[in-house]
Give the backbone structure.
Amino acid sequence: MIRKITLRNWKSHENTELEFKPGVNIIVGSMGVGKSSILQAISFGLFGTFSELKSKDIKITDLITRGGVAKSSEIELSLTMAEQDLILKRTITEGKGTEAILKDSEYKLLAGTNPTQVSAYLKNIMKLDEDLFLRTVYSKQNEIDLFLQLTPGERKKRLDQLMALDKFEDARKNCIRLVNKLEDKKTVKEDFLKETDLEQLKKEISELNQELEDFRKEQEKIKKEYIATRDKKEDLEQQLNELRKKSDYHNRLEGRKSIVLQQLKDFEAKLKEKDLDKSLPILLSRIKDIKIKLSEIQKTKSSLKSDVEKNRSASLALENQIGTLEGRNSDTHKRIKELELAKEELKALQKEDSVYEVITQKLADTQKTLDQKILEKQTAIIEINSLRKHLSELEGAEGVCPVCASKLESLTKEQLIAERKQKTIELTNAKDAAEKEIEKLRIDLENINEKAEKQKVLLQKLESLNDLIVQERETAIQLSEVKGKRETLQAIIQQSAKKLEQLEEEILELDEEHTNLLEEKSLYELKDKYEILQKEIEEIEKQLADRVDPKLINEIETQFQEMIRQAQKLKSRDNSLAELCQEKEKRLADLKQKQTKVKEIQEDIAVLLKKTEFLNQFKNALLVAQSSLRQELIQAVNEVMGSMWGALYPYDKWGSIRLDATELDYTLQIRDISGQWLPVTGFASGGERMLACLALRIAFARVLAPNLSLLILDEPTHNLDSSAISTLIEVIQEKLAGTLDQVFIVTHDEKLAEAGQNIIRLS
């Protein structure tokens, strides 16, 4: 049961909330107020779609209210299903798609935010999908008699789908297709068996096994011979390596002997050149003393050099500071000279005219006089214009004064004209005089302003003169101090440079003595090496006495090469046999695989025969089940429809109604008073057709959707006369309200509104 629906920005509903009740809910309103869109919202809420959306007559974004600023639409349904209170909300957002959530009465999330997940949850509760809902429970406007408008083939297809009988037909067709596929497979396998000679296959396998056994025996024999040859080769290789190693060692000794003899000859020549007049300990002691003294001098030199660098950096900084101060002093002196010239210029200006304060006052007075003269000129212009207007009016006046409307004599008129002309001339002369004076005052004002500005600029410049004089004096003092520091540093740098030169000379002398002492030391070391080399020559002579015979090496080398050739020959034959065995094994594996495949195909053919037999039996069973189920469903629909027809049809012309099923079509029939069954499409009026289709739709809703117990009718009174509408009202009140939990009817007919327990009016 649907308890409440809330629509926000849904089509024409900006913010609508409707309460529904058990029984019949009538939604009444004129065309265009959004009645049908409420039913569409119910369908969209339950299943996420409705007929127009599913057929793509409209897009999902068309559901958002147009013309406003809203970018999303929302539906919220309060439901009771399977004795459980639920809250369902679906949202459509422009550019993002849809979302849905389903909660219980305690706001615990049951499904969402994926719309498909929510729809699946609801389908499981209702035992109903959207197709069955839209074809049975939900009757669109002007589509109650859609069943009668279809062609026989399309009607048969639609009703079979509605009752899920099409699944039996699909299964039967699938069985036929599968049987054909199995027959094709069996034929292919049987053709393969016809092309295969099983006896020849067994003979080839036996021959290959014998060949493989012979090859493997020969391979085992060769492997033993190869191992013996390899072991002998390794022994010869070890002897040969030892002899070669010994021969190489003797050759190296001969080379070393030549080098040592040459070194001894060179040492003898060097030792004869110079006599060693000092003892080695005294020589080493003096070398040590020189190293210590050189190290101390180097430290002193490094420290002194560092001080010189620091002083030079400081001197350079002072040089830069002197340059900066001299530049600053030069700039200050230059500016003072400029200001003294400005001072002289100011004195000259003040002699020529007044001082700045007096000129400023004179400037203000002249400006005031100028403003007064401009005002006088403007006043004169206004009066002149006024007089000229009066003159024009007087000259055109005929006996009446244009100002006071009194009688105007000829003499008075001429007098007034003469007076105004005279006044105009006087005012014009005054205006011209004022203009000349204004021009003169403006020139004076410009001259005074120019002098005032010039004095102002000069006075502003002279304000900094005293500060610049003080600054020049301070800079001169600072410059003198910095120059004194620089001279002191330069004296220190000169002294340090002289001391560095002395240290360099002392280092050179010590380096020369150190070099000479090292040469003497090397002669002592040379003498020791000479004695060591003499002993080495004696040892080499002893070792060279035991030489290796080259003939023995050649004999063993020849035997070793012969063993290598034999081993390679055996290895080559072994590899050849291995390749032959591998080839035979591959051929044998192929034959055995073919033999196995033949057995598998024989087994597959037997299985395919069993499957084909089963599928043929299953296909026949499907036909029987489909026919039986169709009869049961049609019988159930006819029982409900017959019950409804007696209540719906208000006349005696047609006694009953039924749905007749054949192999090609479903026909909705009515029975006349003689008992003959006739098709509704050929014999019933428009209103009777509508009542017949309404009875059929209610019957399908009760039989195929028992868990929902709901019916939705959009404008069901189409083509009904007043008597049929009255009967429909009685049926709704007495039959539908008692057999269904809820009925939703959209109508513009106020009379039909009387049938509802809950009437909702839209405007």
Summary: The longest strand covers residues 72-81. The mean pLDDT is 80.
